[in-house]
Amino acid sequence: MAVDLRQVMAAILTFSMFIMLGNMVKRDHIDPFLESVQSSQSIDQYNASKAKGVILTEISYGPWKGQNEVRRPCWEIPSFKGKQSSRYVYIFLSNGPEYHASQIANAVVVARHLGATLLLPDIRGTKLGEKRDFGEIYDVKKFVASLNGVVQVAEVKPAEVSSMKFTAVRVPDRVSEDFITSKIEPIFRTKRYLRLVTYFDSLSMAKSKETMHSNAYQCLATFGSLKLQAELQELVDSMVGTLRSMSQTTGGHFVAVDLRVDMLGKKRCQENVAASKLCYNAEEIGEFLKKIGFHKETTIYLTQTGWHSRLDALRNIFPNTFTKDAIVPADERAKFMGSEGREYEQFVDFSICTQGDVFVPAYPSRFYASVAGNKIASGKTQIFVPAEKTSEMASDYLSPSRADQGIWAKTGRREIGGRAAINLAQPRSGRGRALSVDRIATMLTTDDFKELPNVGRRKLSNFCKILTTFYMSVHFPIQI
What we know:
Layout: H1 5-38, H2 48-52, E1 88-93, H3 97-114, E2 117-119, E3 122-124, E4 131-133, H4 140-146, E5 153-154, H5 159-162, E6 167-172, H6 177-190, E7 193-199, H7 208-214, H8 216-224, H9 230-245, E8 254-258, H10 261-264, H11 267-270, H12 282-291, E9 299-302, H13 312-317, E10 321-323, H14 324-327, H15 333-337, H16 342-355, E11 358-361, H17 366-377, H18 419-425, H19 437-444, H20 448-451, H21 454-475
Parallel strand pairs: 1-2, 1-3, 1-7, 2-5, 6-7, 8-9, 8-11, 9-10
Antiparallel strand pairs: 3-4
Helix pairs in contact: 1-21, 3-6, 3-8, 3-17, 9-16, 16-17
């Protein structure tokens, strides 16, 4: 009986295709589980150097997305040469990192407009009349260097300033040049020392986009001037490293959730039942993360201080849920987490939420808005906001803040095209769906293919090559 070479070729290609698909399934769905079983279940306390060595290579077990290209900053360093002025602008930073960038931005804009010297700020403490030196929280050298060419900064208060009384001037958040000219300049002509008091209202965030476009100095001060002092930054890096070491199943990714039990008891959260829902408790956050595709072994960081029984429902859904108390290095606990170090906790929370791969706010707040701004600036745009929707598409819950990326110059890099790209790289556990040949062809003709992670792109290319060869061999046989 004659052998048809076309049938032999088709059989070989079909067999090769199934071998390849089997290998892909093993690598994607079996190997990760074997790795997690072999890995230690203990919590490693990573030091700062180890934290920086973590490399994320694959999207795994949830709607994770690699970091976007960091956007070009919204400012250029100007050339400004001048002697230190004998007139000064001073600010007293509020007790909370979510306010500091805006307060610094106001002070920089006002001082530059008036030609005044900016005094190094102090930070208000939790107790009445208590204050902290700027250098206890932030890196003074980096702060001064970042504003070089913008305003003169006096690291040490001159002797004459210490004995003088400052005139307090109330200014709105994102102060405008018109406000400075009409309201502040007349006072500055007669007073040499001004203390700015920034007030925040519901319109502050709404007008931020317009102001940021018009004032590059404000943008520089907001996103480029405040860095934690070395010891505090090392603590944050260590804690982030610990969270990543517990996230081997998800490729080192973790979710940061702004959820504190005391906030859920606030009046605004109690009243949200009558109107649209604003606040979500621990169980609702857990169900939300599960709904949009996060694997049960996802590591979650909460801003809550100390564990509370009302958080148990979240841990029942995601066992790897922790507060800062569980992951802070033992030798740093007394200094940064004890009764004397409680004020450091909010700075730790802010930094960890900013560095996390995904951020989820359980309620609207200034903290959420500030973290979102910093994450977008650093290219980490995976910010999911819970809402009363039935959709299971993670992209349907992306924060509106992601749309307001005009404060950073465009780079030409598009966002990944939603859920399809995520599923191509790694199907959601238990919900993966097969892609038709037509769908694959469509993907190959769009820019979404270029945006896929290298692993997903390689798998798709190899798979399509086999399909194409098989198709050609059957429909356009070789003439023997």
